[in-house]
Amino acid sequence: MVGYDPEAKCVSTAEAAAAGSASGLVTRVLVSPLDVLKIRFQLQIEQLSSRNPTAKYHGILQAVQCIFREEGLTAFWKGHVPAQFLSIGFGAVQFMAFESLTELVHKVTSFNTRDSFVHLVCGGLAACTATVAVQPVDTLRTRFAAQGEPKIYPNLRHAVVTMYQKEGPRTFYRGLTPTLVAIFPYAGLQFFFYNILQKFSKYVIPAETKNGG
Questions:
Q1: Which residue intervals of the chain are DSSP H helices?
Q2: Which of the chain's ends, N or C, has fewer CB atoms near its CB within 10 Å?
Q3: In which ranges do the Solcar repeats occur (predicted)?
Q4: 203 in a domain, yes or no?
Q5: Domain tally for the chain?
Q6: Which domain holds residue 167?
Q7: Is 52 left (phi over 0), alpha (psi -120 to 50) or beta?
């Protein structure tokens, strides 16, 4: 069960953090190539079209072939180390905060912690908390994924030192405000619909055919 439930055996905040970290780690390994493509497309000023001679990337398949030819297979996992720190840290903080927030709602308010609206608000706040905690790592991950050849930052330590010396400590929190504005409804609705679909499954799937959660 995701979220505090006074009528059920709930996971501890440590267990929630461990589960969130593990899911984040596995997910990042699988989606990293798509994340690299997304960042390359976002940073390309020219239109993504084969009819535009100045555009380096025209589409997904062409971009995959181009990156593989110029930079090799490992290019699709560029920035993977900071990205893993991001995913593990975000997953741990988000689920730990969500468990703590829903438990707090139960103890200090009259709201039902299993209510979808509670999950919407707590899920959004939990994601905002996680975003603030891992924003520096997200900035590093983006820098690594965006760089082509030759590399600007050869390793993580060099990137941190160079960015801090040239741009100051605030550079690690660039884009925090729009990220928070976007992540609250995104994560909030994710927990909201998870809660609704979980309740809906009770009516769709007969109780005798269910196996655990």
A1: 13-43, 60-71, 80-108, 116-146, 156-167, 176-204
A2: C
A3: 11-104, 114-200
A4: no
A5: 2
A6: 78-196
A7: beta
